[in-house]
Task: structure prediction
Amino acid sequence: MPQFCEVALPIPLGLTFTYRIAEGELPVIGGRVLVPFRQQRLLGIVTELHDREPRVQTRTILAVLDFLPLLDGHLMKLGKWIADYYLAPVGEVFRTMLPLGAEFKRAVIYRIAEAGHMALHAAGTLGSSARSRRIPEEYLSEIKVLDLLSSRGEMREASLRTLSGANKAVLAGMVRKKWIAREDVSAKRDAARTVRTAVLAGDVEDGKRLNDNQRTLIEMLASTGGKLALEKLRELHVPRSTLETVVRRGLVEVIEEPAGFHVSSTKPRSREFEFNAAQRSALQQIQQSITAREFGGVLLHGVTGSGKTAVYLSAMRGVLESGRSAILLVPEIGLTPAVAADLHEIFGGQVAILHSGMSNDERAEQWHRIRRGEARIVVGTRSAVFAPVSDLALIVVDEEHDSSYKQEEAPRYHARDVAVVRAKIAGAVVVLGSATPSLESYFNATKKKYALIELRDRVEQRSLPDVEIVDMRQEFQDTGSEQVISRKLSEEIKARLDRQEQAMILLNRRGYSPVVLCRACGKTLECQNCAIALTHHKSDRKMQCHYCGFLAPVPQKCIHCGSDYLYFLGTGSEKLEELLHGIFPAARIGRLDRDTVRGRQHFERVLGALHNGELDVLVGTQMIAKGHDIHGVTLVGVVGADMALGMPDFRAAERTFQLLTQVAGRAGRGPTPGKVVLQTYFQDHYAVQYAARHDFSGFYEKELRFRSWMHYPPYSSLANVVVRSDTLDDALRWSGLLGRWFEKTRHEGIRVLGPAPAPILRLKKDYRYHFVLKSQSRGKLNALLRSMLAFAGQEKIPRTQVIVDIDALWLM
Ligand SMILES: [Zn+2]
Ligand SMILES: [Zn+2]
Result:
């Protein structure tokens, strides 16, 4: 019997901890144990069992939670790869891989209460006379606690105590005063949540004796297979008493059920896909690769509307029929209820759907279903790449270029790249699909790392839309004023309205006006926490920071100089909608952006309205650019999508090209050919020109040359190192220390740029300086970063204040 085990704990340290195994306990590698750590008890994952007596005294495991591994050998290997490649703490990686948040870490959280807000407000209004008086230490730490909770929302006890310096007694006192609320989250989340469900019970043939409301309710139930959550029934707007009556008459029963994403256990219906020759050949190639039972990578590059999705789904159904498993990753916005319904139709009860709108309990429930083998098809956003399926045959990454696959918090992994590694470990096939593949993936395909399959034509011989570029500088000269909607676009919209066709208008910026400028002093209104201008949201009557969520009232006077001459500059999607209403008062106009989309349902409702012809024009941000297949849309107007071209980011051209191509792809997906009017201030830019010509390879060649000159990916490995602190002094001192260390250390073949102020110098209260590292050798780069982190540790720079972002997507 091994006497010791190594445990990975969910803390930001890149190492495992040794614990003694108690007599008679049998921990397993990949299973969870409860261990003492400092003053807390933590759950961790066992990574190794051994008999090496450690030199320091070890503590003993408190409890073994799993007798079978939660993470099998493949997933353990994948987790270690992520920790190694992304320089991420291994315990945090495992925590991310297991959506068992509630089960994983016992936590006490605090929230500010009403009385606390008032106390904080009172403290803020103390005059300078009060401030000069001696203030008790305890009061100061109380105010610090309130300030933290008021700006950050709920916080865990450990971080609250570290940041505020308040001890347990201070917190307990504040709870007694009702300034703050304490909650044991683990206890609450462990209790299974239940939903009340109505079930059709009695004889409904007795229909004559039902009134209209009762009949509506019964019919609704019958149409959903005889079972529906009460919440859903409420959406019918029948009076409450109706349900009570039918329950009394024994027609319906109300039962309690564990909450979850309920999937009917119906058999998959045999939906026939109708394929053209190109799709058939793509499917065949993928299937051959799967049958070989060894790793294979495929890049499926198909123009918008070429029927990539049908190819994936068909390949996945083949996998299911052969008794193996498949995972489909989709971008954040891709998983609408309509898509889910489609998936249920094709895969029946064998599909598990994981999305970011689910509660922790729902995620955990789906995770267990997958692990038990009840669902062998998994569809989900980023973290679904960790789904515990067995005998994995296929992973598909849809819209593989989408930036939502990159996690922008620790561990900072890219789900597409993790999918490729997982497929390698499992001997499975990975298919990356896109109309606008990332430079990296396309480059890999041309270097024969992946097989390249191209779908060059739209289905049913439909043509790609014509794109007309409108030069907005010229428009300004011709009309003598700044235009939001050009004459050409206006004319085309009018033509669509006359013909009862539909239009989508993209403006990739939400809110009403992005900048408030004072004409007297020339200053803008900035966020308190970030070096970012606040955006005016007219209907909500507020100013909002789009980076940290900070809110402020709409100013009447300049806060810097008191002048009344405030200008609200620029146009966001909210203002665009208003302008369109003004020009086309009779048109039915809808808007989709993060402000109007309060939930998944709303998103679906608006798209549904467009689909059913209840809307003439849909305005929106990039949300409208992705994946939707609405046949009545014959015009796409791009009012603003090239703002990124003015930013200091080497991926700006690629992102702009992708967005323009994707949004243009929404036009003309039905029988009537589509048209795109592209307004731009950068009409000569190659990203705009190639997008207008639907010329991916032209863009790709040009962009690749630029990347090669500048030593950017895919020609080098890149890492962004950000040093941050809420005091400018620390941020400067620490980045200076690291800068000198980089200079002193020999690192042949690695370019280190920096330290430089990050393009957004202050973000969420932190000052930020950064380094950009580039190298031909990934191994050398990671080795250097590892010793840099060790040096930072010696210099007592907190690990959480040095962010290492491998293959960073944003250098902002
Ligand atoms: Zn001013
Ligand atoms: Zn902010």
Summary: The longest strand covers residues 750-763. Confidence is low (pLDDT under 50) at residues 127-132, 187-193, 260-266. Residues 728-744 form the longest helix (17 residues). The two ends are 52 Å apart (CA to CA).
